[in-house]
Amino acid sequence: AKRPYHTNCDPERTAKNVILVGCEDTQTAFDAIFADAVDEYNAKQKRKDRRIDSYWRKCQADQKMHEPILEYVFQVGDKDNHPDDDEAIEILTDAFERWQADNPNMHVLWATIHMDEATPHMHVCFAGTSKGRKNGLSLKAGMDAAWREQGFRSTKQTPSVKTQWQEAQMDALADVLEHHGHTRAKGKGDKRKHEPVDVFKQNEQLREEQARLEREVTELAAKAQKARVDIARAEAVAVELDERERALRPEKTIADLAWLPDEDTEIDENGRARPRKKEPKLPENDPTLPKETRELAKANRIRAQADDILSETSRTRVVTTIEKLYVAAVKDGRTVDAAYYRTVLKSMYPDWEYKGENNE
């Protein structure tokens, strides 16, 4: 389709423009895409008022139809920094071929590479298509359905399908540019600047390292949570065993036997109540610190907790508590209790063996 000259066009360079897909009229090209589907549909209609004369006009009149066609622009560089003409045409041609391969549901009406303006760029006008219903057109127009059919999905936690699709096109263009030894700098509103290839590769390595560290922190957090659950279960068993021990001592009062820890108290390693330690204010919860500092503090805390929980010290503390009860039961001749403590230890740590004096 012929396009009027803009004020920033250079007519002397128009001959360098490349028409990748041409058409004389957008409506005619649009109707041609759906011609077979429209003919098939009309053949099934017994009433003339149900037949479709022009699918283009039908889509234009449909208030529910959003964006039957779109025009997309690919730009290489800016007015001050862009490849030479031959390389720019090669890059944009490769980008167009990649775009067609990635978008089987997008039918191109026309596509042109413009070399007669300040920056090399390409216009692609296309119609989105998707499979129709059984009683309707077998092929219908509509961008949203086309994007969804290509696998893009949107939820409350994710961007719209259009935004996801646009990001995918920019990523594909970045791949083409990198293949030609360039990197992509986004357009207006994006603060990321153009990067030389060596700087881009260094930054890419840093981004990969950051992603690896984030995965590591997530795994450590999961291990720490599991270890906390195991310790809590073991401490609960130790408390239960201590309560049984108290019940066997007639000198203990009813108040002692009925006492249970509350939110202000906790049980120490010897089974005695003590004031619960107040949790210190963590740097990660300090709103006055920068976000990056808080996230780093959280990652360091999780890693330290995981190392501490997973260390042999935690196991030793639990085993020592129950072993004391086991040794006391053996010395007092309470064989049933001793067997119970031994079973608990073996169920928690199958490799456990009492290292002290053999009093059994």
First-to-last CA distance:
98 Å
* Radius of gyration, whole Å: 36 Å
Number of helices: 11
Overall structural class, as computed from helix and strand content, comes to alpha+beta
Characterize the main sheet.
5 strands, antiparallel
Mean pLDDT: 79
Number of DSSP-assigned strands: 7
Low-pLDDT stretches are: 1-5, 188-194
Helix content: 40-55%
Strand content: 5-15%
Q: Any idea what the shape is?
A: elongated
What is the N-to-C succession of helices and strands?
EHHHEHEEEHHHHEEHHH
Which short descriptors sum up this protein?
360 residues; alpha+beta; 5-stranded antiparallel sheet; two-stranded antiparallel sheet; disordered N terminus
Task: Characterize this entry briefly.
The chain has helices at residues 26-33, 35-43, 55-61, 85-102, 143-149, 161-179, 197-247, 254-258, 291-309, 312-331, 335-348; strands spanning 18-21, 69-75, 106-114, 121-131, 139-141, 265-267, 273-275. The protein is of the alpha+beta class and 360 residues long.
Written overview of the protein:
With 360 residues, this protein is an alpha+beta fold. The chain has eleven helices and seven strands. Strands 1, 2, 3, 4 and 5 form a five-stranded antiparallel beta sheet that branches. A two-stranded antiparallel sheet has the order 6-7. A hairpin with a 5-residue loop joins strand 6 and strand 7. Helix 7 packs across helix 9 (291-309) and helix 7 (197-247) packs parallel to helix 10. The N and C termini lie far apart (98 Å). Residues 1-5 and 188-194 have low confidence and may be disordered.
